[in-house]
Design the sequence.
């Protein structure tokens, strides 16, 4: 039984056959053409594609961050956000679709995408080709950012340098515009707030003035004055009452003297006597009670005179009035003067009472007015403090705005302009070729091992004996005739020609794919760039 007649048997222990170098040599003899083909095919495609890839050039511009030229102790900036945050915002503005579209059109970038790709593809390619790196003062990457680098890759070194410098100028211009815009917006916002607060402050001032005018004398700060005024008015009223009592006594005395003078001159009538007695009764009642004998006598005489005056009397000839004596005239003048003073004293008494009532009303209304006044004052004080604070901030914002307009604040400056690169930075062909060779070798070896694992036929009598316990009686070698040899040579020739044609086609297709393909070159060099 030969090995060819036993093909098709499954060998569960095939992985254990042979060992070491001998097995490797055996596999190589049987599978070498498969391994060589699998090795050459991807290697040829990789080499053709790597050689066809376009050269990419990279230029970088170093932009330094210059701090504020005016000390912050004199002018406080209104732009206080972190530099990294502002750079991110500026990058979003610069890498916007409208900005990059104009740059692509002006520089004629990516002409191969103009007709066969969407309009946004060139913009997206430009975004991917631009790189921003921050340079920090601390080498560990934790310090403040002192500069940043803008890099761009492309096929033409001159165009790459121009695009890089243009992007750097975009960053400088956009930073100045953003800072000035933020400073102006801050000042405008504070100005609007200041106008609103000023209007509210004027309204509260007018309300406080109206409150003071309406409740003049009833305000809390006037309470001490009202108390002092009330005490003064009460003292004056007491003095005025004493004056009234004294004037009443004096009037009674003068009236008595005048009646006595008239009685002596014989001209006192019943009415005059009744009036004199009544005045005497008032004077006595001031000092004594109604049980005093003189008061009782005068009351009896007053009752008699009232009765006598009430009775009808026959008409009598009028008596001639005797002229008053000089003493009686002086008494009459003093009595008239006393009456005048008494009227004035009573008028003062009414005035003092009205004033006292006014002071008392103010004191009674003071607690209610105090609550209203304190509420209005508290609102006014808060608004005035807010107005003072906003005024100070507005002045600072105006200084900051002037500083930004004069470009004395933080700004960017190109320290190293981008220069055209003399040598390409991508693709790294030597590295890619080495990786392609290693990968192709691995594929070839893998193909041989896989074919060997999938082959379940026996290739020697030793393998058959190891597989079964049935004794091997005879071993018939393979008989190759001249016709078999001729057919084998023709098959080999056809296979070689097919392999060569396949290699040429694969190489041509790979060259076609890689030729001028900047995107593929960027993709293959991205790992090395990172």
Sequence:
């Amino acid at each position: 039984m030969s090995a060819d007649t036993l093909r098709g048997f499954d060998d569960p222990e095939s992985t254990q056959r042979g060992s070491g170098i001998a097995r490797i040599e055996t596999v190589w003899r049987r599978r070498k053409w498969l391994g060589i083909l699998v090795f050459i095919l991807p290697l040829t495609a990789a080499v053709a594609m790597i050689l066809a890839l376009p050269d990419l050039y990279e230029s970088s511009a170093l932009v330094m961050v210059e701090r504020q030229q005016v000390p912050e102790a004199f002018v406080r900036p209104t732009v206080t956000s972190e530099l990294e945050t502002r750079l991110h915002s500026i990058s979003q503005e610069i890498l916007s679709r409208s900005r990059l579209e104009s740059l692509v059109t002006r520089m004629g970038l990516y002409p191969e995408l103009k007709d066969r790709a969407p309009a946004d593809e060139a913009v997206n390619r430009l975004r991917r080709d631009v790189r921003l790196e921050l340079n920090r003062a601390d080498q560990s990457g934790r310090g403040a950012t002192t500069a940043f680098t803008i890099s761009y890759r492309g096929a033409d070194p001159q165009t790459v340098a121009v695009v890089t410098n243009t992007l750097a100028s975009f960053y400088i211009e956009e930073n100045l515009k953003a800072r000035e815009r933020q400073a102006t917006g801050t000042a405008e916002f504070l100005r609007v707030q200041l106008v609103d607060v000023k209007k509210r402050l004027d309204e509260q001032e007018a309300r406080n003035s109206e409150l003071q005018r309406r409740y003049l004398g009833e305000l809390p700060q006037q309470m001490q004055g009202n108390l002092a005024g009330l005490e003064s008015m009460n003292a004056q009223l007491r003095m005025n009452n004493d004056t009234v009592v004294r004037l009443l006594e004096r009037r009674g005395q003068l009236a008595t003297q005048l009646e006595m003078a008239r009685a002596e001159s014989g001209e006192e009538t019943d009415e005059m006597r009744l009036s004199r007695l009544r005045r005497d009764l008032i004077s006595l009642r001031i000092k004594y009670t109604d049980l005093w004998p003189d008061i009782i006598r005068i009351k009896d005489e007053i009752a008699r005179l009232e009765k006598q005056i009430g009775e009808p009397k026959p008409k009598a000839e009028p008596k001639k009035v005797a002229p008053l004596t000089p003493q009686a005239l002086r008494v009459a003048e003093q009595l008239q003067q006393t009456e005048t003073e008494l009227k004035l004293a009573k008028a003062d008494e009414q005035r003092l009472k009205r004033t006292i009532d006014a002071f008392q009303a103010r004191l009674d209304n003071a607690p209610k007015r105090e609550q209203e006044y304190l509420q209005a004052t508290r609102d006014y004080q808060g608004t005035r403090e807010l107005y003072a604070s906003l005024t100070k901030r507005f002045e600072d914002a105006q200084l900051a705005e002037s500083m930004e307009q004069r470009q004395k604040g933080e700004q960017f400056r190109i320290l190293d302009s981008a220069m055209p690169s003399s040598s390409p930075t991508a693709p790294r062909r030597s590295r890619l070729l080495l990786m392609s060779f290693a990968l192709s070798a691995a594929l070839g070896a893998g193909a041989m091992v896989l074919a060997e694992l999938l082959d379940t036929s026996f290739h020697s009598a030793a393998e058959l004996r190891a597989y079964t316990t049935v004794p091997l009686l005879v071993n018939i070698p393979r008989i190759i005739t001249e016709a078999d040899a001729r057919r084998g040579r023709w098959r080999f020739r056809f296979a070689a020609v097919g392999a060569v044609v396949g290699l040429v086609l694969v190489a041509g297709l790979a060259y076609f794919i890689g030729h001028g393909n900047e995107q593929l070159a960027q993709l293959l060099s991205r790992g090395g760039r990172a």
In short: The beta strands are 57-66, 130-136, 145-154, 411-416. The CA atoms of residues 273 and 505 lie 162 Å apart.
